[in-house]
Amino acid sequence: MRASKSAEHISGAEKILNEKELDTNIMALVQRALHHTKGQPDLINIKIETVDAQKIEYIDALPVSSIDVDSPAQGQNILLEYLKKLGLRNSSSIIKKFKETYAMRGAMLLNADTLERLEPNLDRGIRATYMDAEHTALTDNGCCKNHFQEAVILASKVANAPNIIAEICISDDPDYVTGYIASKKFGYVRITKLKKDGCPYGGRIFLYRGRSGDKYECIDYLEKQHVLVRSVPSAPAKKIKEADPWQFVRDDLQERKESFIYREMKEMHSAQCSHVYSNGRDLLMLASNNYLNLSNDPRTKRAAQKATEQFGTGSGGSRLLTGTLPLHTVLEKNIANYKNTEAALLYNTGYMANVGIITALCDKNSVIFSDEYNHASIIDGCRLSRARTVIYRHNDMTDLADKIRKTPCSRGLIVTDAVFSMDGDIAFLPDILETAKKNHLLCMVDEAHSTGVIGKTGHGICEYFGLTAQPDIIMGTMSKALGSEGGYVCGSRLLIDELCNKSRSFIFSTSLSPAVIAAADEALRILAAEPQHVKQLQNNVQYFCDCLKKNGIYSHSDSAIVPINIGDEKQSMQIAQKLFEHNIFILAIRYPTVKKGKALLRAAIMATHTEQELHHAADIIARYVDEK
């Protein structure tokens, strides 16, 4: 039986029956065709053929096991594991072939080693037909489909075909997310989730290993040989968990290595200055966010030592319990004064600040308008808030205004980095503030990479643009130019009171240690009193960009971050390694930090770099970038 609508295949089924069973089964097949999830057909074809009983082949059903997974991604990792058990090294490429099966009525016959497609008709594929259980009866109402039983029958026949080593199947039924991989080697392995609920796509791949010239023997068996399968179970066995629950982690790490996005940590054996000692080398540091070298200033270190002697090494509790020291209160007051706001609140990290602020202020009734290049902490805050998040094109004020116009809301927030952490460019804050005010939206700016870096005296993005108006929410960190650690938020007393009572990453975290707070407060005092450090940083950035330009590399920056575009992930890693061999420490930034194919070298300039060091680094960088 075949059912279709406007020439689109909807359903198919077949039975090998005794003559006396025809009437009941024909009506059952018709009912099944009429009540399919994909819709009601406008054509039902029923074909009846006489079968020579002497030519029927009897085979045993494959042994069945069932693996319970929680997501399609986990299910596909299981598929990859079983393909590797067959000795296949191109497992991921085989899975990607499924997209080519979606429009096919039949299955793909794929050379398991070369990935050559072997079907004579690539649009139609191979149809495995003429098969049934040794004897089955349809259910009483006749219109229900036993997905599992029919799949075992088909998989058992396919596994017995000449030169077939395995079959992979994902159902094209929107209501059926289970699929399988089957082979004589390990039987029929049912995987409970291989696609999302409601997904209409699916297909089959028959994996062939043998000479291409022998494929017709295989095709004839699949399409013409009558087969009855013995001992077909009517329901799947009890679900089991995968034998090695860590295999999906091994597979993920291997795929990252093959894609050149695998990360490893490098130990620093000295303070984060313009030069560091690592892996037995003295290196020019072009990757640190310690832009003003305040983490190694004798005054910040003495402040940390003094605080430790007085208050100990830890704070002993969360801020709302026992973790608020005079040091915390003083630093919050000083940060608020520096940023010209009513109040401030400290967080343990910049990441926790962004997540805590956004989730406290936004919920499922809110809309967040977020720049597409925003930091991962902002992205995660948006996701965790459950608000509707609308992404606008990077620094595109026309697109922002258009998307606000198309997305009316009673509660909304525009959020952006001040200095974008990978490209080093600066948000158009005057336009953003005007747009927020016009549309009655809150405005939040992340100043992690702008405080101590931009503006005449390092006060950040508002000073940079000469603004008197400010964002409603100013977030920043003490771990960049201030050379310590932790995050903060500045704004109205109303904002700070709300966060104290609602921001989970603030409420449920042990507060920052005395040494950290004292060092940050001393660094803030130095920054306010000695703006010449900011001026020196800005001069160094301009000088480094000029040196790059003289070597044929155009890279402009108004911040401390100078991006050098490479593109290919592998090439970016190779160049970074060559620079390391020349005692230059610079990082290759790759997916998922940036988009695939947009890898770059991220140079972070410090106020303490000398012109000689920057000139030398630019020359070496240009040499290897030119070779790519």
From TrEMBL:
Q: What's the catalysed reaction? A: heptanedioate + ATP + CoA = 6-carboxyhexanoyl-CoA + AMP + diphosphate; 6-carboxyhexanoyl-[ACP] + L-alanine + H(+) = (8S)-8-amino-7-oxononanoate + holo-[ACP] + CO2
Q: Which InterPro entries does its entry note? A: Aminotrans_II_pyridoxalP_BS, Aminotransferase_I/II_large, AON_synthase_class-II, AONS_Archaea/Proteobacteria, BioW, PyrdxlP-dep_Trfase, PyrdxlP-dep_Trfase_major, PyrdxlP-dep_Trfase_small
Q: Which cofactor does it need?
A: Mg(2+); pyridoxal 5'-phosphate
Instruction: Quote one Gene Ontology molecular function term.
Output: 6-carboxyhexanoate-CoA ligase activity
| UniProt keyword Transferase present | yes
Against Gene3D superfamilies, the record matches this protein to: Aspartate Aminotransferase, domain 1 (3.90.1150.10), Type I PLP-dependent aspartate aminotransferase-like (Major domain) (3.40.640.10)
Ranges that cross the membrane: none
Primary enzyme class:
transferase
Which pathway does the record list? Metabolic intermediate metabolism; pimeloyl-CoA biosynthesis; pimeloyl-CoA from pimelate: step 1/1; Cofactor biosynthesis; biotin biosynthesis
Classify the source by domain of life.
Bacteria
- Subunit annotation: Homodimer.
What NCBIfam families does this protein map onto? bioF, bioW, PRK01322.1
What this chain does, per the record? Catalyzes the decarboxylative condensation of pimeloyl-[acyl-carrier protein] and L-alanine to produce 8-amino-7-oxononanoate (AON), [acyl-carrier protein], and carbon dioxide.
Protein name per UniProt? 8-amino-7-ketopelargonate synthase
